[in-house]
Amino acid sequence: MKTLFPFGVLIVLVVTLSGCLRTQQAPQQTSTQDQQNMATTESETQNVMQPETPKTITGSETLTDLSGEITRSLILEQSVLGWKWTKVVGGYEGTVPFTEGTITLTDGVPTAWVFVVNMTELKENNNNKKLMDHLKNEDFFDVVNHPTATLTFTNALPTANPREFLITADLTIKGITNPVEFTAQFNEDMTAAQTTFDIDRTLWNIRYGSPSFFNDLGDNAISNTISFTVSVSFE
User: Fold this and answer.
1) What CATH number has the domain spanning 66-233?
2) Domain boundaries, the chain
3) pLDDT tens across 179-215, in order?
4) CA 19 to chain centre
């Protein structure tokens, strides 16, 4: 005799299985929704944290207003004149400190300045005392008789770049004055500037070791060119 599976039990099993299937599917739906919410939150966070692109100076309309006449003094501890001198083999470089200086701006354009450096405090980067003593004597800068050198402004012409000027000035070394020309870059509010320029030292009667005046120097020949790097700050 066959035993019949109770119909009521079958119904209970079907209902139970359906409930289990719904229970397993529900977390998947919730998980998908959570992922969407997380993606939205992450996108919003990225938008909030994205840094703003710095503004670039593209014209005078974006610069600090410097109308009128302003005179500023050098900040001595933040200003330095660097020098570099090459030989056939090797070379030397060092610094000279400023002792005083002022600059006058008229409507944001340099119209006057005088910078003075102390030649008695000329330094060589490797603290070569023999070299420094030689540079200070009459063969080179003769600092006993000429303890200072000066750079005096004569003219400034704006270039195509904001806060940049083509400068002409008079450079006095050993009591001899010659004109120099260079491009100077100022910061946005013109409280700092920097430039580089070269000179032919023989124009200031600094002829020691010059191949233009002495023969058979060989490796002891010293270039006529002295390169200067100027970095100044104003208050």
Assistant:
1) 2.40.128.110
2) 66-233
3) 999 999 999 999 999 999 999 999 999 999 999 999 9
4) 72
Q: Which helix (H) or strand (E) holds 224?
A: strand 222-233
Tens digits of residue pLDDT in 83-99: 999 988 889 999 999 99
Q: Which long-range contacts (CB under 8 A, 24 or more apart) does 192-196 make?
A: 192/78, 192/231, 192/232, 192/233, 192/234, 193/230, 193/231, 193/232, 193/234, 194/229, 194/230, 194/231, 194/232, 195/167, 195/229, 195/230, 196/227, 196/228, 196/229, 196/230
Q: How many CB atoms lie within 10 A of CB 161?
A: 10
pTM across the whole model: 0.72
Distances (CA, A) of 2 to 5, 129, 132: 10, 120, 121
Phi and psi dihedrals of 196, rounded to 5?
-135, 145
